[in-house]
Amino acid sequence: MTSPTIKAVIPAAGLGTRFLPATKAMPKEMLPVVDKPAIQYVVEEAVAAGIDDILVIIGRNKNALANHFDRVTELEHTLEAKGDHGKLARVMEPSSLADIHFVRQGDPKGLGHAVLRAKKHVGNETFAVMLGDDLIDARDPLLSRMIEVSLGRSATVVALMEVDPSQIHLYGCADVDTTDESDVVKIKALVEKPSAEEAPSNLAIIGRYVLKPEIFEVLENTEPGKGGEIQLTDALEELAADESIAGPVLGVIFSGRRYDTGDRLDYLKSSILLALDREDLGPGLAGFIKEIAPTLPE
Predict the structure, then answer these.
(1) Number of neighbouring beta carbons within 10 Å of residue 99
(2) Is 1 contained in some domain?
(3) Does position 2 have pLDDT exceeding 60, yes or no?
(4) Cβ(62)–Cβ(144) under 8 Å?
(5) Looking at residue 296, what is its pLDDT?
(6) From its phi and psi, is residue 154 left (phi > 0), alpha (psi between -120 and 50) or beta?
(7) I need a surface site. Which of 45, 96, 266, 285 has the fewest CB within 10 A?
(8) At 110, which CATH number?
(9) Are strands 36-37 and 53-58 parallel, antiparallel or unpaired?
(10) Is 231 contained in some domain?
(11) Is the pLDDT of residue 60 over 80?
């Protein structure tokens, strides 16, 4: 278990335009991955790392997020009366996971601005930021390792993952030096979506961060960058360039299972992979895939 002072921040104010029209009235974080909304996987990951205080940054028309983690007594009573205790437990689970708070971002000024909105709630403590586009398999813990490294080395920590060099242009990329631990590197610089030729490594930034409270002052003085938004990457770049602000910026290299739900094709792949691992769904789905495989176009 990690320090009880660690809180998690989940930015969930994006418009989800890649999934229109499904996200016209439904937050993208509520899109189901198998039979749970994506954001519930993220909350469960935080809880598994010992975090019980979670702040979700939301935008307009995101009330469904708060509703999902609230009690629905009429539904609970109906299921209880039917004796359907399995469904009752699944319905009640989200509201008992953690102490979950919500705050509006207001103007959509980027990820850095969304993180800045957590300043009052987080206070002067180290905290985790978890993006909902990246789902980390519960069997391959990442966040607990990042918190361990952050607290042990008094460092800002960014999650990194090796990707094929041909894909690095889709990610932020880290320029790193090795340390005395094989899964920990020191970040010298961050490059946003470089070409394969310009990339300093094939280590991509994925959506998990453990940040020290000094990040807030840096964000307050960070000018809008790409897209006219306040970029978290720009603030991290400043921290990496000047350790006197908040100590070193380190990367934890993750080699486990990660599911990218950021675009439609990867979202579908993620749902299939997670369903295949389920005892109640996997055998039937695997049989169906084998059945239709010969008929699929090459």
Answers:
(1) 10
(2) no
(3) no
(4) no
(5) 87
(6) left
(7) 96
(8) 3.90.550.10
(9) unpaired
(10) yes
(11) no
Quickly tell me which residue has 């005395």 as its tokens: 180
Nearest CA-CA partner of 102 in 50, 57, 134, 72: 57
Instruction: Report residue 256 as tokens.
Output: 């486990």
Structure tokens at 183: 């899964």
290 in any annotated domain: no
8 A C-beta contact, residue 172 and residue 197:
no
State the Cα–Cα distance between residues 27 and 48, nearest whole angstrom: 24
C-alpha to C-alpha distance for 27 and 78, rounded to whole angstroms: 27
Burial environment of residue 30 by CB neighbours within 10 A (0 to 12, 13 to 18, 19 or more): buried
Number of domains present in the structure of the chain: 1
pTM for the whole thing? Answer: 0.92
Lookup result for tokens 């310009």: 198
Question: Which residues constitute the domain of residue 91?
Answer: 7-283
**pLDDT tens-digit series, residues 225-236:** 777 889 899 999
Listing DSSP states for 153-216 in one string gives HT-EEEEEEE--GGGGGGSEEEEEEE-SSTTEEEEEEEEES--TTT-S-SEEEEEEEEE-TTHH
Tokens representing residue 5 in the block: 């002072």
Average pLDDT over residues 154-182: 93
